[in-house]
Amino acid sequence: MPNDLEADHSRIVNHVLAPPAGVFEIDPVHTFLGFSAQHLVVGRVRGHFSAVSGTVTIADDPSASTVEVSVETASITTMAPIRDDDIRSERYLDVKQYPAMVYRSTAVTEVPGGGWLVTGDLTLRNVTRPLELDVRFGGAVTDQFGNARLAFHASGSITRRDFGITNELLREAGGLLVGKDVAIDIDAEAIRPL
C-alpha cells in the first residue's frame, strides 16, 4: 500500500481551495480553542479549553456545510489555578450548572480572498446568541493511520454581557479589570476514516 500521507485531498470549488466532502469528527488532541480578554486596560489574559468535541460536515457545495461543536466549560485553563477556579464559579461560567457550551452553524458564506464566514449560534450559560467566525481552510491529507484529516483556523469574538456574565470588577480609580469582549482563536483538525 503506497504511503500517501502527503496526498492533498483538497479540491477547488468556484476557484477557491475547499475541503473534501464528508463527515469529519473534531480531533480534540489536535484542536486548540483559545481566547483572550483585556486585563487592567493595558494587558491581555489568554487561556484555552482542553475538552472540545464535534462534527464538521462538508457538503459538495461548501456553502451547505455545517459545524456543531461542544466544549466542556470546566476544561478552561489560563495557567493560573486561582483565576481558573474563579472563572469556573457562578460569577462567570458557572460550570456546575452549565457544564457545556455549544456552537451550531446556521450558514457558510464564501468571502473574498479564499476564506469562509461561518455564522452560527453559541449557547453559553443557557443563553443563545449569534457568533460569526472567520474561517480559513488549512488543507487536507491522509494521516499515518489512513484517516482523511483536514485543518482550519477560525477567529471571532463575543461580548460577555450578551451571555449574562456581567461582573465588571471595577477598580476604585475607574476602568475595567476585565474587558467586556472576549476574542476567540481556534486551530482545529478533524478526521474521518478513509
CA gyration radius, whole angstroms:
18 Å
Question: How do the strands of the widest beta sheet line up side by side?
Answer: 3-6-7-9-10-11-12-13
Q: Tell me about the biggest sheet?
A: 8 strands, antiparallel, barrel
Separation of the first and last Cα atoms: 14 Å
Beta-sheet strand percentage?
over 45%
Shape: globular
Class in CATH?
A: Mainly Beta
Contiguous uncertain segments of 5+ residues: 1-6, 169-176
Number of domains: 1
CATH architecture descriptor name: Beta Barrel
CATH homologous superfamily annotation? Lipid/polyisoprenoid-binding, YceI-like
- Give the overall pLDDT as a whole number: 87
Task: Summarize the structure in words.
- The chain is built from one helix and 13 strands.
- The chain is mainly beta.
- The protein has one domain: Beta Barrel (Lipocalin), CATH 2.40.128.
- It has an eight-stranded antiparallel beta barrel with strand order 3-6-7-9-10-11-12-13. A two-stranded antiparallel ribbon has the order 1-2.
- Strand 9 and strand 10 form a beta hairpin.
List the main descriptive attributes of the protein structure presented here.
1 helix, two-stranded antiparallel ribbon, disordered N terminus, 194 residues, 4% helix, mainly beta, eight-stranded antiparallel barrel, globular, Lipocalin, 13 strands
Q: What is the gist of this entry?
A:
The protein has 194 residues and is mainly beta. The chain has an 8-stranded antiparallel β-barrel. The chain has a two-stranded antiparallel sheet with strand order 1-2.
